[in-house]
Amino acid sequence: MARQKLLFVFGTRPETIKLWPVIHQAESQSEDFEVRLCFTGQHRQMAEPLLKLFGLEPDYDLEVMEQNQGLSRLTAKVLLQLDEVLATEEPDWLIVQGDTTTALAGAWAGFYRRVPVAHVEAGLRTKNVSSPFPEEMNRQVVARLASLHLAPTSLARQQLLAEGISPAKICVTGNTVIDALLYVKEKFLPSLDLARTFSQIDLSKKMLLITGHRRESFGQPFRNICWAIRDLLDEYPDLQAVYPVHLNPNVQQPVREILAPKGQKSNMHLLAPLDYVEFVALLSHCYLVLTDSGGIQEEAPSLGKPVLVMRDNTERPEGIQAGTAKLVGTDRLSIRSAVSELLDDPVAYERMAQAVNPYGDGQAAPRIVEALRQHGNGHNGEYSGICTVVGSVNHNNGGGQYENVSGGLSLFDVYRDRGHTTNSAPGHPAGSLR
Description:
With 434 residues, this protein is of the alpha/beta class. The chain is built from 17 helices and 15 strands. The protein has two domains: 230 residues, 3-Layer(aba) Sandwich (Rossmann fold); 160 residues, Rossmann fold (3-Layer(aba) Sandwich). Helix 5 links the parallel strand 5 and strand 6. Helix 1 packs across helix 7 and helix 1 crosses helix 16. The protein is globular.
């Protein structure tokens, strides 16, 4: 089979984290794949530290962001600039991840240029296009445009089949965020002095780790969230609440108004956005998680942390079904009640903390690269047959247990074989950014 050119298109923090394992897996097989990276800059402030951490050097930087830019203008700019990249590179596959504006515009650009699109983390659905907004619609549209659907779970595969996607175009791989999480935990956390890094936090006490940024919660729902957190801190004065605050002004304003006064005491810690290693360190140490994030619903169960999801629905119902996560909405009393139960009831806590992690075993990246190899050149929808990368999925406390990829290696194997034995990120020189 001829060497395939893969163009990865990404621009946000979660895309960078979740595509990094696939990029490096493909780079480790340079005899089969030529890798090109296109960074849109959609989350530049939050994504650039990850580029440096993981040693990713984009071949293209679209620099699409500007002050007070709407979704329509952002989509149009990515689409127009990416079209020029595709004309230059003529890749065999354009690879996008998740549900961002970058992913949507990337898939459209590939479709218009007749470049096959591979969608990592395909098949997640709430079936409510207003929640999450605009992510749910983005995912549904990308599914219509993609030629290969890399579903993280069997349930995601079923969602795609229900929408009429051919089973020959779907591979169940596990979620790449588990690959990244486990690698960072093993390679970086042992050398991080948590007490020194977070000297303002009393690490001897129970920690509530908080993240919140969803667009559909802006306004009164977000104020409800903040008041619920403040209520909990009054009720549990020994509880350490740690909140890395998103940079969006719609998040910053209510947080500073309602929670900043609590910061004058010792149990409310409002932090700037953290780098990924620091965040994984806090996630590993915390007692429980209160979030509206999608990715954290996947990451926390791998570390045995219960997740309370401040949303009315989720495109990741596997965690709800497995018992690792619980929907609590944005109602002030509901949030208080759910957190209090886990703080006060050890049985309820252990039931969630010890539940099965349904999202993967840390080898999604080799399965994805094997799927690209199996499907070969995806032009005109011609495939080598039904995807056989992953067989049946059986879950245990170690996460999703998947059939091993034929000839596939884990991230750890790849980096060990390439001589990476230190705590520096593999691939390119640390800190490099073209």
